[in-house]
Design goal:
By secondary structure, this protein is mainly α. Helix content is about 70%, strand content about 0%. The chain is built from six helices and no strands. Helix 1 packs antiparallel against helix 2, helix 1 runs antiparallel to helix 4 and helix 2 packs antiparallel against helix 3. The termini are far apart.
């Protein structure tokens, strides 16, 4: 009888330990997604400031961009999916590329100090968002790996833990366009906001 009680106690302690470990990993993923949301919000703020700056050079394009960006902007929270993050990333990248196209057609923008500040701010937030995506994906890798390990996978489904999806890089999300316009080099401009 004492032996049965001892085995049940060990299994119970092990189950609690597995649950706590998986819950901690899941919380790390949620925190990383929240950080991505903060960075995306900051990027949208920098982007709208940059769009407002364009009003003096191309008011029609500025208004169109502002309307598109405002309508497509969504808040990213811990409950958001990687697909929602990628959709927001595409909106930012497409708007950035259209701003760069307007900037290319108005060389006097390049000398505007606020224009350079907006570009630098957007670049800074893009780098932070990239770092946060790496952190998120690292936490997802750890959780997914743990879910496949024996004997953890025996309890993971019972406790409601499932594999999480990774955030893939968005095509055209690199920073070359911003750096090239600052250095006055030629750069390719692609937009996709009208899709």
């Amino acid at each position: 009888m004492m032996m049965v009680f001892f085995i049940v106690a060990i299994v119970l302690i092990w189950g609690i330990s597995v649950r706590r470990r998986l819950a901690g990993m899941n919380e790390n993923i949620n925190q990383a997604m929240n950080q991505i949301g903060v960075q995306l919000s900051s990027r949208f703020d920098a982007l709208t400031a940059w769009i407002n700056l364009l009003k003096g050079y191309d008011e029609q394009e500025s208004e169109n961009l502002m309307e598109i960006v405002t309508s497509k902007r969504n808040k990213i929270t811990a409950a958001s999916s990687p697909e929602e993050v990628q959709k927001q990333e595409r909106t930012i990248c497409d708007a950035r590329n259209r701003i760069l196209a307007v900037s290319a057609s108005h060389p006097e923008i390049k000398t505007n100090e606020n224009h350079v500040k907006c570009m630098n701010a957007l670049e800074k937030y893009e780098k932070m968002a990239c770092t946060n995506r790496l952190i998120y994906n690292d936490h997802v890798t750890r959780l997914n790996r743990e879910l496949h390990m024996f004997p953890t996978f025996l309890l993971a489904g019972i406790f409601g833990f499932h594999e999480r999806a990774y955030i893939e890089a968005v095509e055209g999300a690199d920073l070359r366009g911003i750096k090239n316009i600052i250095t006055n080099e030629k750069y390719p401009v692609r937009t996709g906001l009208d899709r």
